[in-house]
Amino acid sequence: MLVGKQSWVFESKPIIRSTGIIGGPFEANGRLADEFDILHDNLWMGQGSYEKAQTVLIEQACEKAIEKGGLTKDQIQFMLSGDLVNQLTPSTFAGRSLKIPYLGLFGACSTSMEGLAMAAYLVQTRGAKHAVAVASSHNAATEKQFRYPTEYGGQKPPTAQWTVTAAGAAVVSHEGNGPRVTSATIGRIIDMGLSDPFNMGGAMAPAAVDTLEAHFRDTGASPEDYDLIVSGDLGEIGLAIAKELCEQRGIVLKENQFKDCGLMIYKEDQPVLAGASGPGCSAVVTYGHLLNKMKKGELKRILVIATGALLSPLSFQQKESIPCIAHAVSIEAEGVTS
Amino acid sequence: MLVGKQSWVFESKPIIRSTGIIGGPFEANGRLADEFDILHDNLWMGQGSYEKAQTVLIEQACEKAIEKGGLTKDQIQFMLSGDLVNQLTPSTFAGRSLKIPYLGLFGACSTSMEGLAMAAYLVQTRGAKHAVAVASSHNAATEKQFRYPTEYGGQKPPTAQWTVTAAGAAVVSHEGNGPRVTSATIGRIIDMGLSDPFNMGGAMAPAAVDTLEAHFRDTGASPEDYDLIVSGDLGEIGLAIAKELCEQRGIVLKENQFKDCGLMIYKEDQPVLAGASGPGCSAVVTYGHLLNKMKKGELKRILVIATGALLSPLSFQQKESIPCIAHAVSIEAEGVTS
C-alpha cells in the first residue's frame, strides 16, 4: 500500500461507482453546466442562511450519488466530508440528516482529494464496501466568513479567485462500474512566505509541485503516464507559477498536459478574476467533467492535485503567511489496463 | 477489517509506541500533573497569541512522542491532527514546521479518537509504518472564539465545562513496544435537539451511547471485555445521562466501569464546573494517565469513546441545536492475549 514516503498504490483499484454534482446559479451559467445533476437558480436553496444552503448542496450531492449508484444510505459505511466554513458547519449538519457514520476532514480546497484518497483507501483495504467522499463550498458563505459580506461590493485585485457554489460527491466502491482510483499522494504543508489572501493561487503553487514531485518519486510514475494533470484551483496565476516550478525541477510536461479545475468551470466572460476556487470546484470538475471525459474515452489516466490554502481570517490578522497543501489522486478509466 | 456497519477490527494490533503529553498551567495544578512530559507555567508559551501557543503545544507533543519512540520526523509517514480553532489554524501551523505529510481532521473533541482510529487503520493496512495522531485545545483560544474573551470574566452556569490547555500525541507503529489498538467504531452524528452550548455534556451523551451500542453490536464485544469504558469529555452531567441511557438500552455496566476523561484531569477544588473538555482532554488523559495504568498492569483492556459537540458560534446564532458525534477506540495492554 505505502510506496515511498507519502503515497499509496491501490492494487484493487477502488471504483468511483457514481457521483452527485450540485451547483448554484453562477455555475448554471458556466461552461460545465450540462455536467451537473442539479443546478439551483439562486444562492439560498430555500434556506434562511448561506451555510444552510451549503448543507442542502452536500445532502443533495450525497443523495444523488448514492441513488445513481443504485444504493441506499444504509449501505454506505462512511461519509467523508469537509468544507471551508468554521467547524465544518455545513458538513456536520448534512451528516446529521444523512445519518451515515461520519469522518470530518479539513484541508481547505484540498479537502476534495483528501476525502477521495481516504475513501479509496478504506475501500482498497476492506474497511468499507462503499464510502462517500464529498467536498463543497458556497460563494456567499465563504465571502462572508473570510472577506466581507457580498452586499458591501468590496473590490478585489485581478489575482483573487471566485469561490464556487457547489458540492461534488463520489461513491467509492469495491464493486460496480466506473473509473478507478489507482493511487494517492498525501502532501506536506508548504509555506513560501506569501501572505496575500487575494493571491492564493500563487501561494499554493509550490505545494502543488511539491506533491507532484513526491508522487512521481514515490510511485515511479512519470508525466507521460497521465493524459492530464489537473490542479485543484491554482487559477491563472498559480498555474503559471506551478508550470514554471515544474520546469525548474525537471518535470517535463507536454503542452496542455497541466490544467487547472479553477480555469475550467466558468466561461471566459464570467467575472471570476484569476479563476475559480473552493473545495467544491475541484470536486465538481473532477467528478463531473473529467470523469465524463473518461467514460467517453477521451481521457485514460488523470492525476488530480487538489490544492488548499490553509489560512484563516485569524492567521491573516496575526500577519502570518499562508501555509498550503496539496493532495494528489490518480484515476484511470474503466477497462484501461495498467 | 470492516465488521458490522461502522467498525474496524485491527488484527495486527498496531502499537502505540510512544506518546507526547504537553499541558498548561491549569493542568500543572491538576490531578494528573505527573503524567505530562512538559507543563507550561503560563498560557502564552512564549508566543504572541493563544493560537500560536496552541501550535507550540502540538509541535512539542509530536516532537516528544517521536523522540520517545526513538524515531525521527522523517520516519513518520503521516501526521493526523485537528483542533477546535477555525480552519484548524494551530494544527496547520504545527504541520508547517513539522513537515510531515499531513491529514487535517475535524470532529471537535472527538478528533482525538478520530485521529487514533485513522492512524491505527493506516498502520494496520500497511499504509504507514509510523503515523502520529495528535489532538489539542487551548482554554483561552477556545473561550475567545466560542464564547467571550476571558478578560470579560463572563459567568457560566454549573453545566458548563472547562476547556483543557493541552496536546496529546501518539506515535502508532507496526513495530515496537506498547499498548495496542485493537478496534475502532466510527460514530454517526446524533442530535437530540439540545441547543445550550453551556451544557454540551448533556447534548453529547446520546452520541456516546449510540457509538457504544454500535461498537458492541459490530464487534461482538460486551461490557465485561473492558476494565474501563471512558468517555471523552461528557463531564458530570453528560456522564450521568449516558449511564442512564445505557441502562435504558440494556447495556449493563459495573459500578465504576464507565468514567469520563473530563472528570479525571483536574482536582476536586479546581473551578471547572461540570468538568473538563476539549480535544486535548481525552488525548492527554488517554495517552498519559490511562496508558500508564496499562503499562503498570492496572488496566488490561479499555474502550475510549471521544465525544464531540459539532456546534459552531454561527450554528448557535442561527438557533440550531447541537449535532454530536463520538468515535470509540479499544486499546489493550501489551502482552494481553485476546
Summarize, please:
The first copy, chain A, has two domains: 8-173, Stage V sporulation protein AD (Peroxisomal Thiolase, Chain A, domain 1, 3-Layer(aba) Sandwich), CATH 3.40.47.40; 180-332, Stage V sporulation protein AD (Peroxisomal Thiolase, Chain A, domain 1, 3-Layer(aba) Sandwich).
The radius of gyration computed from the alpha-carbon positions of chain A, rounded to a whole number of angstroms, is 18 Å
- Counted up, domains of chain A total 2
Helix content of chain A: 25-40%
Q: What is the averaged pLDDT score of chain A? A: 96
Strand content of chain A: 15-25%
Oligomer: homodimer
Order of the strands making up the biggest sheet of chain A: 1-2-10-15-14-11-12
Low-pLDDT residue spans of chain A: none
Number of E strands of chain A? 15
CATH class of the largest domain in chain A: Alpha Beta
Q: Which pair of chains forms the biggest interface, and how many residues does each contribute?
A: A-B, 57 and 57 residues
Protein name (chains A, B): Stage V sporulation protein AD
Pfam families (chains A, B): SpoVAD
Organism (chains A, B): Alkalicoccobacillus gibsonii
